[in-house]
Amino acid sequence: MEYNFAEVEKKWQQRWRSDNAYRVTEDADRPKLYVLDMFPYPSGAGLHVGHPLGYIASDIYARYKRMQGFNVLHPMGYDAYGLPAEQYAIQTGQHPATTTQQNIARYREQLDKIGFSFDWSREVRTCDPAYYRWTQWAFIRMFHSYYCYDAQQARPVEELVGVFAQQGTTGLNVACSEELSFTAVEWCAKTEAEQQQTLMRYRLAYLGEAMVNWCAALGTVLANDEVAAGLSVRGGHPVEQRKMRQWCLRTSAYAQRLLDGLDSLGWSESLKETQRGWIGRSEGAELAFRVKNSDVALEVFTTRADTIFGVTFMVLAPESGYVAQLTTPAQRQEVDAYLEATKRRTERDRMADKKVSGAFTGAYATNPLTGEDIPVWVSDYVLAGYGTGAIMAVPAHDSRDYAFARHFRLPIVPLIEGCDVSQESFDAKEGVMVNSGFLNGLTVQQAIQRAKEHIAETKLGKVKVNYRLRDAAFSRQRYWGEPFPVYYKDGMPHTLPESCLPLELPSVDKFLPTEAGEPPLGRAAAWAWDTEKSAVVETAKVDNRAIFPLELSTMPGFAGSSAYFIRYMDPHNPRALAGKAPNAYWRSVDLYVGGTEHATGHLIYSRFWNKFLYDIGATCEDEPFRKLVNQGMVQGRSSFVYRVVGANHLVSAGLKDRYQTQEIHVDISLVDKDVLDVEGFRRWRPEFADATFELEDGKYICGSAVEKMSKSMYNVVNPDDIVEKYGADTLRLYEMFLGPLEQAKPWDTSGIDGVHRFLRKLWRLFYDRQGSFDVSAEAPTPQELKVLHRTVKKVRGDIEAFSLNTAVSALMICANELTDLGCRKREVLRPLTALIAPFAPHLAEELWEALGGGASVCKVPFPDFDPALLAESALEYPISVNGKLRFKKTLALGLSKEEAQQLLLADPRAEALLGGRPLKSFVYVPGKIINLVC
RNA sequence: GCGGAUAUGGCGUAAUUGGUAGCCGCGCCAGCCUUAGGAGCUGGUGCCGAGAGGCGUGGGGGUUCGAGUCCCUUUAUCCGCACCA
Predict the structure, then answer these.
(1) Could you say which nucleotides of strand B lie within 7 A of any protein CB atom?
(2) Which of A235, A525, A749, A794 has the most Cβ atoms closer than 10 angstroms to its Cβ?
(3) Which residue lies nearest B14, CA-to-C1' measured?
(4) What is the 3 state secondary structure string of A888-919?
C-alpha cells in the first residue's frame, strides 16, 4: 500500500467524529489545561492559509499535553456579530443571520479538513441568544455597579445610594465621570430623576454625553481601537469627533488594575508594552488657575509641576465648555471663527498639517505661584479627551507650547540653569532650577517632588495619576449586534429584569437607519417593553403607563468576545455564564493563541470584562489569559502583469522598464513560478482577451510583491487546495516548518514538497517497496535508540518552548537517520509514531493501527527519553589552545570539570599542545569543546 | 518624535544560550532510473581561489582564550503609539 493521505485522513476524521474522540469533561483526578485560539469572525471569503497557523500550533500543543495526561479543554467557536455581514445584508437584503450561518458552515467544513482536536460540543456563537443573554446579563450587572477605589473592586450601586443618604460624597473614593460634591441632606432633597442622573455618573455601564468617534459613512460610533489615523479600521472612512449620548463602559476605572495585572502574565514584552502605552499612566498634579473677573477656576493636569513659574499662558481645547463662558465680547467673533474652522477640519487634517493655530479668548487667569496675569487661549493642539481639556503652557520646556508661543509672540521664561531656548524648547527633565522662587537650586527631579508637595500643602490642587485609557463607547447604531436589555421611561434608562433575558434581536424590513435617522432597530414592528407582562410588544403600543420603548442601538463587536472563553467552560448552562464547579475546575486560559491586532482591543476589553466578572464573583480568576502567544501574520505573495499605459499591450516583468507601465494584480492561480498562463489570463479578464503580450524567452514573467493576503489582491491561498493536493498532515507540518510562529512571513508553497517527502519517507519506514507492512521485532541497536531518544528530548523541549519549526526539523532529521540506518524496528517505530501524533495525527493513527498499537495513538502517553542512554555514548571533542590549535579527542559525556581536567592533563596530546606552558585554566563544555588557556 | 522588534548562503531558517556558524527544507549542480513531463532515488552545494589558503552572521568599535550570541555606536527594515501636557 502506498501512502494515500486522502483515504487515511478521511478515515480518521470520520472515526474521531463518531467516537467523540476529543470531547472533554471536568475530571478532578487529572490536571486541567485550557488551550484556546482566538475565535474567528466567519467572513464570506472563507479561511485562508493564514488563519489555521495559530490553530495548528495550539492543536499540536493541546494534543501533546493530552498525551502527557492533562485534561485539555480545547474549544472553538465563532465571533459571529460584525459589520461585513450587515453591509452585505444592506446590499442584498439577505438577513445577516443567514449569511453568517452559511459562512460558519463553510468555516466548519474547512476546519474539519485540517484534523483539529476541538471539542465541538462546546461550540459558542456570539449571535446565539443562549450565549448573548450572558453578554446582556453582564451589561445589566455593570449598569448596577460602581467602582470603589478603596476596595479596588466593583460594588453594587445600592451600596452607593446608602452612602449618599448617610454622608453624601464626603470621603468617597470612587470612579466617576465628573467629580461631584454634595451632602446627605442635599442628596435626599434631590428628586428621583435627579438622583438617577447623579447615579449615572458612577455606574460602570452608563449613558453619557461623550465625545465619540462618529463615522458618517458607516453610520455609527466607533471605539478608539477601531479608528486609526482618523480613518475607520474597517473600510477606511473618515471619522469625526462628535458629542453624543452613548452607552459607555467605565474601563478607565480599571486602568490601574489592568496595568498591574500585566506584570504577572506570560505575554511577550512588546505586547505588554503596547498595553502599557495604551493605558498610559502618568503621575503628576492637578491644580486650579483662577480666572480674573470670574468665578471660574481652570483645572489643569501637569507632570511638570516644577515648571509652574514658567507658565506664561493657558490653552483650552476647542471643545471645552469654558471657551464660550470665558470669551470676552471683544474676542467673540475671532474665537467663534476659529471654533468653526477647527470643526470643519477632520482629525486626519489636524494630524496631517501641524500648523500652529489658535485664538485668544480675552480672558486672563492668575498664575498661583507668581501672581502674574496670563492670557487664556484656545487651540486644537489641546485635546478635549485627555486630562481636563485645558493646559498650563510652559513654552520654555514644552515643544508644543514653544511653537505656539513663538507663533503668537507670547513670552518664554526659561527655568533651568544654562538652557538655551532661543531656537527650541528644553524638554529634558534634567538640570538645576532658576527663576523659580522656592524651587531655585533644586534639580528638576527634586523640584517636581517639592512642587507637588507644595501644591498639596497649600491646597492649590492635588497630586494625581492620570490615564490615557478612556471609557469605551459601547453603543453602535447598527442592527447586527446584541440588543441592549434597556427600556426608557421618562427619558431615563431602565434595565430589564435578568429573568427576562435573552432579549432577542427583532426582525426588521431593512437593515438601514430609519428615515428619521434612528438606528435600524427603529424599524422593528415589535420593539417596546411591557413592564406588566414582562414581554416585548409592538412598538405602536408604547404608552405612558406600562409600555416603554426599548433601546435602539446595539452592542459593539467586542461585547460578545469579552467573555466567550468563560462560556466554553460550561457552554450549555441555562442558569449562569458558567457554573461554579466547571469554572473552578478550568479557571482561566493557560495558553491563548492569536494575532497582535487585538492588542489594544479585544485583549483590553476582555481583561476588563473578566475583572468585572471576578469582582462580582462570576469567575474565579482575575486575569483571563495566563500565557499568550501571538502568531505572526501570514502575508500573501501577489503577482502583477504590466500594462503599457494607454495601450492594450502587456509586457513581461523584465521588459517593463522600457515602457511606461501600470501594475495590475493577477490571480495567483494563473501564475506558476512567476510564469503567467496567458490564455487563462485572457479568459479571466475579458477586457484583455485581445491584448498583445510581449514575452521573454517565450514566457510572460510576472512581477511579485508581499502584501496582506486578501481577496482584492488576488493572492489568497485556500487551505482546502493544499489539503487536496498534499493532505492535512502536510499542511500542518508545513505551516509550522515555515519559520518561528511569532514572525510574520509570506506564504510560499514552494517548500511544501520537502515536508510531504518527509511523510512519505516515514511511511516507507513501515512499508517496503512493494507496499507491504514490514516491521521487525528485532531489538534496536544503541545507535538507533540514541537517534530516537535524542529526537524525543529535542521535540519535547521544542513543544514546551513553542518552537514548532525546529521540532518539525528534528522529526525530519530523525526519519533521515533511521532511513540511513535501515531501521524498521517495532521498538523504535512505536515511540516514533507517538512522537509525530501531535503534528501529523492522521498518519500517526494509521501507522499506529498497523503496528497493532491499540485504539488510538492520541491516547497513549507521549514518549519520554532516557538521559542515561544519551549520556553514555562517547563523543568527539576538539581541543584548542587559546582558541588557535585544535585536535580531536574522545571523551565521555557527563564528567565534572575536575574529572575532565584530570583526564585532560593525562592526555599526551594535551601535553604536547601546551609545550611546557602552565595551564592557566581550561574551558570544558560538555559535548562541545575543550579549550586550554595558557 | 517616543516605544518595541528584527538583520545569518540564491531563498525560508538553525546554532545545545558565550564554544568547530550555516542543521532541516527549498532552489541549484551532477549522477542513476525512467525518459513527453513540474515524477522518484543518490551525492554535492556559504563566498573567493586551480591550489595551499583566505574571507565570512547589516557597518564601526569594545569585553573575552573564544562573540551570530554580551556592551557601546551606527545604518536599514518592520510593528505599535503618536500634539497624552
Answers:
(1) 3-5, 11-16, 19-20, 23-27, 38, 40-43, 65-66, 78-85
(2) A794
(3) A806
(4) EEEEECCCCHHHHHHHHHHCHHHHHHHCCCCC
CA-CA distance, A168 to A183, in Å (whole number)? 4
Instruction: Return d(Cα A669, Cα A729) in angstroms, integer.
Output: 23
Q: How far apart are CA A283 and CA A462, in angstroms?
A: 11
CA-based angle A406:A412:A414, to the nearest 5? Answer: 135
CB atoms under 10 Å from CB of A265, counted, come to 17
Q: How far is the CA of A757 from the C1' of B31 (A)?
A: 21
Residue A199 one-letter amino acid: L
Task: Give A531-572 pLDDT, tens digit per residue.
Answer: 999 999 999 999 878 999 999 999 999 999 999 999 999 999
Instruction: Measure, in angstroms, how far nucleotide B78 C1' is from residue A744 CA.
Output: 9
Please tell me whether the peptide bond between A502 and the residue prior to it is cis, using omega within 30 degrees of 0: yes
pLDDT tens digits, A588-637: 999 999 988 898 999 999 999 999 999 999 999 999 999 999 998 888 88
Interatomic CA–C1' length for residue A739 and nucleotide B8, angstroms: 15
Using the 8-state DSSP alphabet, how is residue A382 labeled? S
Task: Specify the nucleotide whose C1' lies closest to residue A379 (CA).
Answer: B83
Q: What ipTM was predicted for this assembly?
A: 0.93
Residue A163 CB-density burial (10 A; 0-12 exposed, 13-18 middle, 19+ buried): buried
Tracing cell 485645558 back to the chain, one arrives at A390
CB within 8 Å of A244: residues ≥ 6 apart:
A209, A210, A212, A214, A221
Q: Quickly give A139 CA vs B14 C1' distance in Å.
A: 50
Say which nucleotide is closest to residue A356, CA to C1' distance: B83
Report which residue is nearest nucleotide B18 when distances run from CA to C1': A925
d(CA A174, CA A151): 9
User: Does residue A66 contact residue A117 with C-beta atoms inside 8 Å?
Assistant: yes
pLDDT tens-digit readout, A651-684: 887 777 788 888 888 888 888 777 788 888 999 9
Question: In the structure, how far is the CA atom of residue A307 from the C1' atom of nucleotide B43, in angstroms?
Answer: 76
DSSP tag of A381? T
Distance between the two ends of chain A, CA-based, in angstroms?
A: 63
Q: How far is the CA of A638 from the C1' of B77 (A)?
A: 20
Q: How far is the CA of A273 from the C1' of B59 (A)?
A: 30
Measured over the CA atoms of residue A645, residue A649, residue A653 and residue A657, the dihedral's sign is: negative
A758: nt with nearest C1' to CA: B25
Instruction: Name the closest nucleotide to A380, judged by C1' and CA.
Output: B83
Q: Which nucleotide lies at the shortest CA–C1' distance from A470?
A: B84
Greatest alpha-carbon span in chain A: 108
Q: List the beta strands (DSSP E) in A27-70.
A: 32-37
The 3-state DSSP class for residue A207 equals: strand
Residue–nucleotide distance: A768 CA to B41 C1' (Å): 15
pTM of the predicted model, to two decimals?
Answer: 0.91
Contact A707, A663 (CB under 8 A): no
Please say whether the beta carbons of A704 and A637 come within 8 A. yes
